[in-house]
């Protein structure tokens, strides 16, 4: 019954061509499976008509697995019946081998039913080609499509008309002046206004882009972070850099940067690799990009070293550092990195680092490794479990749900998923993708802490979101998670002028009340906020960036020690 319901629900994900193909294939299958004594000449032409429709669908660009299933069955039916087009059989004999014909008919229906069951995940989401339009025309078409199909317009309270009024004049100015740099920066500003980490220009290599290189290709050898008090401190100092040679030390407070008070320079920094969904993500990236400048530019800096009262001023020339400060402050996963690994710490706590939620080259079955770790932890009698999902970019929600099953006693809903339907013209729940957490063995029900940061994103945010309702768990971090929990199955893709290919999430993750969960809102709030939110003050800054301590891990251990 559930399978039938899923198949019926699937009709809202079909294209018009797929609807026609489904009808043709069903009629032909029924005609040749069920003994019908009356002859209908037009049925002989249906398989050929189906081939024509399939070709039109392919010309429209639909090569999804769902469409290929229809194309294949249509082609098979056509190849089995071409002679009837020019050699009609007007007398219908009593069919032989009725049982065999029925079995073959059911075999033909099977791929249709399977295709319909997975139609939501494999639905056709066409690429919009606006690349040959003017900048302003392409923008208007882009904005119109997103107003209909972007999953979080209401949650983020996006005023689409206001966006058009704000950005269309800038795009028009860029096309009138033939200013590619203004076009690029306006396009980025528009995308970043959504505050969604899943939005990206897929073919953009930011560090190689001439506009970015012209404005931020140089550095002086430092990166910064802002304390809760507003003070901007140096958290990275490159050995041998111009900053180090000038006397700036790790932990120094930057008082002014290039003629601006440091707080204002920090606040006004706009560059980043990706849109910053939450204030926590924005806070961290602004400190990385504030200290970038054009190569060769002289930057006047006022600073005060840690433990000194004297304010010093220095003029440094930005040099081509090959983006070293940016690379050193952004985690880059490698193919050989294991998805997860664990150990028992010297204090008796179990520790598991989950880097990403996909099979890896060195670990094809992370779920099995997770089970083995839990079995080892139970055998050794750990005092508590610490799961580290800091810097986890996500991966598979199914894998996350499977891992979480070993941490729960009762079945629970992980998520509903909804997509925009081109048939109903609204967002619909795809029942096939409803994910539930089923308790599994070995089961761990002891004290638990989950470490997060602003780069815990997408399905990486799933575990801390779930743990908010667990009495035995703490979520620990300086910031909440990334707030980009949307679904990217058949993403919205749009080709824009100058060859830019834009990608947007296509689905929403919904909670048990069918409300959007995890994604940031219009205030930059979202994801999973720690219940143990560590203050970022002088003390914790020095512990983390000067002494190199793992502050979040230490706070988690203290919290678990205090739990009964």
From TrEMBL:
Entry-linked SMART domains: TSPc (SM00245)
Ranges for domain Tail specific protease come to 319-535
Q: Where is this region: Disordered?
A: 511-533
Task: Please list every transmembrane segment annotated in the UniProt record, as residue ranges.
Answer: 12-32, 65-86, 98-119
Tell me which UniProt keywords the record has, alphabetically: Membrane, Transmembrane, Transmembrane helix
Q: Per its UniProt entry, which superkingdom is the organism in?
A: Bacteria
Instruction: State the InterPro entries in the record.
Output: ClpP/crotonase-like_dom_sf (IPR029045), PDZ_sf (IPR036034), Tail-specific_protease (IPR005151)
Kindly indicate whether the keyword Oxidoreductase belongs to this entry: no
**What protein am I looking at?**
S41 family peptidase
Task: Identify the species of origin.
Answer: Paenibacillus filicis
